[in-house]
Amino acid sequence: MTDISLIELELCKPAPFIFGENGHVAVTDGETVWIVVVTQEAMMATANPPDASLKRLARYARHYRDMAAAASRRGEDYNGKVWIFEKDVLAFPKARSFERPGRHGRQPTRVADKTGIRP
Questions:
Q1: Taking the model in full, what pTM does it have?
Q2: Which of 61, 74, 80, 95 has the most CB within a 10 Å radius?
Q3: Alpha carbons 2 and 107: distance in angstroms, whole number
């Protein structure tokens, strides 16, 4: 167990990858590297539509990093790994970019065409 309560984690190499059913993201505090293991179910619960792909893992890597930092502060890091489960995703505050419709939960703005008439 490592105390990183005052340390900010950053993504590092290797790039996110899928091994078996789970995603893996490397994070560091500048001295130590941890592997964040994101279960298939956690990736599927992150956003709609449910998906457990490398694209999803890479897109939400910073969100998983933040979840790993919170888990580590609670003492939930084991042997250089932090596990992110579906229950963790469901309990963690979602980032604004996950919301629908439109960006930040707003309806998309309508733009006038070349004639100046709004659709």
A1: 0.74
A2: 61
A3: 43
pLDDT digit string, tens, across residues 50-108: 999 999 999 999 999 999 999 988 899 999 999 999 999 999 987 544 544 444 444 44
Element spanning 24, H or E? strand 22-28
The residue type found at 119 is P
Amino acid letter, 15:
A
What's at 86, amino acid-wise?
E
Query: What Rg, from alpha-carbon coordinates, does the chain have?
Result: 18
Distance CA 50, CA 58 (A): 15
**Tens digit of pLDDT for each residue in 9-44?**
999 999 999 999 999 999 998 998 999 999 999 999
CA distances from 61 to 71, 83, 94 (A): 15, 13, 13
* Nearest C-alpha neighbor of 27 from the set 89, 99, 93, 82: 82
Give the per-residue pLDDT at 106: 46
Residue given tokens 């990858």 in the structure block: 17
